[in-house]
Amino acid sequence: MRINKQHIADENKNSSENHKDGFDFLSHQLDKQDKDVNAILRKLADFQVAIPSWALGAGGTRFGRFSYFGEPSTLEQKIDDVGVLHALTKTAGAISLHIPWDIPQDYDAIKERAKINGLVFDAVNSNTFQDQKDAKESYRFGSLSNLNASAREQAIQHNIDVINIGEKLGSKSLTVWLADGANFAGQRNFQSSLIHAENSLKSIYSELPDDWKMFIEYKPYEPNFYSTVIQDWGTSFMLANACGEKAYTLVDLGHHLPNTNIEQIVSTLMLKGKLGGFHFNDSKYGDDDSTVGSVKPYALFLIFNELVYGMENNPQNPDLAWMIDASHNIKDPLEDLLQSLEAILEAYAKALLVDQEELKAAQERNDVTLCQEIMQNAYRTDVRPLLAQARALSGGVINPLKSYRSLRIREGLIKERGMNSVATGL
Ligand code: AFD
Ligand code: MN
Ligand code: MN
To answer: Which fold has domain 5-417?
Structure first.
């Protein structure tokens, strides 16, 4: 089902009166605080978040997987699903593919499909955490850090193949996430694992096209439960530096131990010009498990405050690649992604409201109370009318979730694909 201009216009007609009241009130308040509402609206409208092809079906755990009805079972259908998100929000203008789950059969047709939906191809993701059918070597004991040179070479070659696929689609970056590590103490020598991982990453990097970037994710645990080769931002940063200027660290919100100060990591990486990408999700215990902003919305705001500061003050850091990296077990994945997009834009808008000059002055006076007040005043502002206004001005709907339901999108997808379609991926 494709959402057209008429659908959007009809939807907005129903919500426009309420929205206008809310927006007029808020913009009046912000005017009085000397905020440039139009500049904020432009920034919100420009902000594009990539949707990963693996977030469009239901995830699962080792205990089981409950498919969601009408899931996309082909790459074409996944592109259409992101097209729905983008038509409603005008914020999801890119798709990030996972290889080999999403290898295009017909490149021209896939590119055309993306174009019709207003999408570009974001970073391509390699997969050396699962054994592939007919593969010569197994990743049971690691991929880029495997002790067996032939397994390492296979994993390196896979990443090069992924770059080649991405080039045909117009992608400009490769994201590497390594599952490598150890399940048991004493299983592996930490130093040799790291040396192998570094050399393998350098081999991949040497094949990276000039105008590409390589993003290196880190993660403290899972699927290995004793140690992970690239366990934290420091290790990723070190490896990115070892590779060269086109290699960057990627921060995934779900890849931190409890209480890690992620905003400080963001700030440090941007100061050093090495934050390349960002994966949004939220978590209580594990990885990718909750909707963005649903558990720790204030932490998300503090992270955005550093991102905004870095975007304004760190020209040494490149434009960031934003992506939602989520995997949900029971919700309608598209509804979940709509909620995530809203939470991201909300945190961004609030961070844009922080008065940086006032904050700096309060910090210089060591007025700790005022510093906290400045942050919390911004955070406590209900910015949702700004988001709705930015969307409506860009041709999206005022209330995406409400419209998703009233346009009966999921019902349409079930009719098209059936109740029991299954998305490829994990
Ligand atoms: C897993 C990893 C990581 C990665 C994604 C795609 O934890 O976040 O980005 O798979 O490979 O979620
Ligand atoms: Mn990730
Ligand atoms: Mn993850």
So the answer is: TIM Barrel (3.20.20)
